[in-house]
From TrEMBL:
Catalytic activity: (2R,3S)-3-isopropylmalate = (2S)-2-isopropylmalate
Organism phylogeny: Bacteria, Thermotogati, Deinococcota, Deinococci, Deinococcales
Superkingdom of the organism of origin: Bacteria
Keyword Cell membrane (UniProt): no
The name this protein goes by in its record: 3-isopropylmalate dehydratase large subunit
Enzyme nomenclature, EC number: 4.2.1.33
Length: 428
């Protein structure tokens, strides 16, 4: 029996020639990603047991991102804890406030994380990095503590779901719509403890930014991670970061690999999709109901990349955010913020009446810088619309692509971005 990409990576990191789904393995971690929310608890566990060390300070990447710049004293203390640990242990890759942004997006851009590697973090969207042809997954604080201490974690080898996306999307339809459509179809637990491997000519033609959006949301279908095989797009992305193919290992799934489920998606039939409250699987076609919004949020590790900001700018250019709508745009990292500034995108946002914020998770999980109040209605480019996710439990969150968020912000109600296709194409 052949193996999938994920099985091959896990075998290579656990000293086995081959592994099968269900097998328990001790897996070496090439990278541990640490932020200020879950790392302090893991560090306390280690300290209490007198196991206060790191397996290798060069293989830890630390990025404060959720509650920074701190909005209260508690957050300031968590940030201090992460920072003092980084200095004490000599953690090599530290992206402090002002030099980083949202951890997953910072990491994907560094060139540190390479195809064929393994990554764990105390964050559920760690699956994001799977787009690089790597095995990346979120773990709880105990496993995080173990990884920091020993550079190893226990895994049960997951089954793999194959998602084949063929054809091309209509103008105005983006990777976010594809992933919302898939989660709608399979359900919020449809990929429970499975690897979601994306293939097909749609994926072949997709840029890395779009691939990260797909793998980022694996956890919203219960997936262990998402993964995309290495191809020329991945190689070019790595080489732009100074990493050559001899520095990483490429894996492909074998023709006779065992896929537990196969999902077929015709990209040309996918419409702009909005996940209605309060679960990401609750997808409907954008604009099928007239839903007034009070807030519009573009950002997060799912959709705060430069390509997302360009999509938003194409719609906002020469237009105004509707009265009564608070729109915030949060570039995911300092580097993306700078590029957006250089491309003139930030000026377009400001001229349209949107507020541009510093890179952080703040609004995405209702911690700061855009917390929703009672009965607010937000159209969000993020990945979760659970009750209370962005603030008050009575607030309603609708998940969509950046283009749909922008179209809705301009109209004042949830709208189909394809209404702007003519002007977008004319502007290009
Ligand atoms: C705070 C963190 C543990 C959490 C996660 O794991 O996903 C957050 O990033 C989120 O998106 O809800
Ligand atoms: S941007 Fe949102 S989803 Fe991503 S890590 Fe931060 S809080 Fe979690």
């Amino acid at each position: 029996m052949g193996m999938t990409i994920a099985e091959k990576i896990l075998a290579a990191h656990s000293g086995h020639d081959a592994v099968v789904p269900g097998q328990l393995i001790e897996c070496a971690t090439d990278w541990v990603l640490c932020h200020e929310i879950t790392t302090p608890a893991a560090l306390r566990m280690l300290e209490e047991r007198g196991m206060d060390r790191v397996f290798n300070p060069d293989q830890i990447v630390a990025v404060p991102d959720h509650s920074v710049p701190a909005m209260n004293i508690k957050a300031a203390k968590m940030y201090q804890k992460l920072k003092s640990w980084v200095h004490e242990k000599g953690v090599k890759h530290f992206f402090d406030v002002g030099r980083g942004g949202i951890a997953h997006v910072v990491l994907e851009n560094t060139g540190l994380m390479k195809p064929g590697q393994t990554l764990v973090s105390g964050d559920s969207h760690t699956c994001n990095a799977g787009a690089l042809g790597a095995f990346a997954t979120g773990v709880g604080s105990t496993d995080l503590a173990g990884a920091i201490y020993a550079g190893k974690v226990w895994f049960k080898v997951p089954e793999t779901m194959l998602i084949r996306v063929t054809g091309q999307t209509q103008p105005g339809v983006t990777p976010k719509d594809i992933v919302l459509e898939v989660i709608k179809r399979i359900g919020a637990d449809g990929a429970n403890y499975m690897v979601m491997e994306w293939v097909g000519d749609y994926i072949d033609n997709l840029d890395m930014e779009g691939r990260f959006t797909l793998t980022n949301m694996a956890i919203e279908a219960g997936g262990k991670t998402g993964i995309v095989a290495v191809d020329d797009t991945t190689r070019a992305y790595m080489s732009a970061r100074g990493v050559t193919p001899d520095q990483y290992t490429e894996y492909q799934s074998d023709a006779d690999a065992n896929f537990k489920v196969v999902v077929e998606v015709d990209a040309s039939a996918v419409e702009p999709t909005v996940a209605y409250p309060h679960i990401p699987s609750n997808g409907r076609v954008a604009g099928s109901d007239r839903i007034a919004v009070t807030h519009a949020y573009v950002g997060s590790c799912t959709n705060g990349r430069i390509t997302d900001l360009r999509d938003v700018a194409r719609i906002l250019k020469g237009r105004r955010v509707a009265d009564g709508v608070q729109m915030i745009v949060v570039p995911a990292t300092q580097a993306i913020w700078k590029q957006a500034a250089q491309e003139g995108l930030l000026e377009i946002f400001v001229d349209a009446g949107a507020s541009v914020s510093y890179p952080s998770c703040g609004a995405c999980l209702g911690m700061h810088s855009g917390v929703l109040g009672p009965d607010d209605v937000c159209i969000s480019s993020s990945n979760r619309n659970f009750v209370g996710r962005m603030g008050d439990p009575s607030a309603q969150i609708y998940l969509a692509s950046p283009a749909t968020v922008a179209a809705s912000a301009v109209a004042g109600f949830i709208s189909d971005p394809r209404e702007y296709n003519d002007t977008i194409n004319a502007a290009d």
